[in-house]
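Subject: design request, 405 residues
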């Protein structure tokens, strides 16, 4: 009897295994993208990283960045704020080495780097990218830093003015606390950004054969080049997300809280919301076939939960738009200067999706020159209540709001 019983048990186990594959292998809803969660599956979001406890990593913290320039000094101040009282929690400084490209000027090779956006935007040094509206600038500046704001990616320009290398600087360092990850003659590495964990710098590069690629170099070990996938040149910035990390080359990249979709745009690519890419590369026509077009969206501010995106509209108002259907939901939110109708631009959305921060440019005098300071405002994404001015002594026109945890 024992052999027969053993055979029946084996059959029963096999049947149960089949039933489990059919009915208990997933708890996700139908049509939901992304790999199954589990210890061996890649995590497309950034919540899988363990971060050190600091004012920059705690919940309900707003992070800003400002470039400081002096006769013998250039640096980036990153600050963590209490968004209720606008009290400063902590400041970190990133010293910019002399050879780092933080501006473009005549007789040298133009460098595409978000650091040029932050430090070098002027009439003599325009943005290296096609669009410099805040909805475009904010996410590419954020990509310079790791999740904990301990390292900042930079592009080094050789004295010949032509060769460029990716590297990084440590927070609270000095003039010698920087690392150029390559010093090979003839390198053409640009768009340097940091991986979420700070363990690698990613960039676009051009091979000796003229091929456009995305690469990375570890911040540890021998820093050898790892080829990560195709690029479309240096004209579009990079954003690196996920665990293990991967890059997407596009504008206005915002990862959904669950990591399974991202909001972004790219020239000639139709759509705003895309499934998170399985590999590194630019958004393509193939990506666009499964993308959702957000109605009336000219500027992507961020995600309001996993299913909705906050957009700036052509009229200058802000609308919450459904990320699956593409239709606007709720009332339009108007944020404008009453005296001259200046149009506000969006910067960051709070982690709970209930508020966002805008910047209203300063007014012009009769000659068209800017007068005084612009202002920052905290606004409800639902449009309820009055906008609250943001007032702190160290905030200036050059301050960028990078994140609201």
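Subject: RE: design request

Done. Sequence follows.
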């Amino acid at each position: 009897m024992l052999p027969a019983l053993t055979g029946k048990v084996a059959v029963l186990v096999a049947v149960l295994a089949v039933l489990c594959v059919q009915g208990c292998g997933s708890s996700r809803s139908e049509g939901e993208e992304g790999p199954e969660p589990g210890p061996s599956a890649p995590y497309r979001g950034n919540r899988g990283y363990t971060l050190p406890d600091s004012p920059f990593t705690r919940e309900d913290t707003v992070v800003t960045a400002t470039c400081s320039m002096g006769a013998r000094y250039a640096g980036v101040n990153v600050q963590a704020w209490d968004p209720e009282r606008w009290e400063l929690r902590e400041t970190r400084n990133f010293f910019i080495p002399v050879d780092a490209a933080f501006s473009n000027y005549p007789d040298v090779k133009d460098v595409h780097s978000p650091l040029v956006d932050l430090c070098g935007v002027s009439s003599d040094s325009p943005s290296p990218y096609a669009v410099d509206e805040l909805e475009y600038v904010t996410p590419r500046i954020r990509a310079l830093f790791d999740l904990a704001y301990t390292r900042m990616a930079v592009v080094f320009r050789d004295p010949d003015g032509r060769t460029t290398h990716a590297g990084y600087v440590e927070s609270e360092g000095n003039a010698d606390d920087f690392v150029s990850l390559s010093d090979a003659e003839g390198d053409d590495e640009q768009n340097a950004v940091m991986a979420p964990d700070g363990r690698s710098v990613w960039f676009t590069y051009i091979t000796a054969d003229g091929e456009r690629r995305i690469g990375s170099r570890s911040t540890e070990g021998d820093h050898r080049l790892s080829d990560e996938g195709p690029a479309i040149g240096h004209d579009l910035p990079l954003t690196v997300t996920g665990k293990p990390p991967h890059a997407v080359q596009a504008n206005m990249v915002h990862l959904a809280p669950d990591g399974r979709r991202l909001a972004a745009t790219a020239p000639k690519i139709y759509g705003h919301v895309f499934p998170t890419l399985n590999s590194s590369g630019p958004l393509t026509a193939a990506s666009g076939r499964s993308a959702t077009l957000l109605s009336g969206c000219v500027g992507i501010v961020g995600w309001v939960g996993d299913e909705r995106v906050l957009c700036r509209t052509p009229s200058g108002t802000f609308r919450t738009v459904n990320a699956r259907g593409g239709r606007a939901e709720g009332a339009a939110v108007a944020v404008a200067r009453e005296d001259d109708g200046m149009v506000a631009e969006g910067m960051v959305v709070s982690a709970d999706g209930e508020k966002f921060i805008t910047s209203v440019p300063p007014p012009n005098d009769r000659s068209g020159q800017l007068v005084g300071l612009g202002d920052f405002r905290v606004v409800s994404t639902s449009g309820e209540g009055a906008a609250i001015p943001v007032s702190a002594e160290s905030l200036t026109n050059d301050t960028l709001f990078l994140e609201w945890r």
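The chain has a mean pLDDT of 84.
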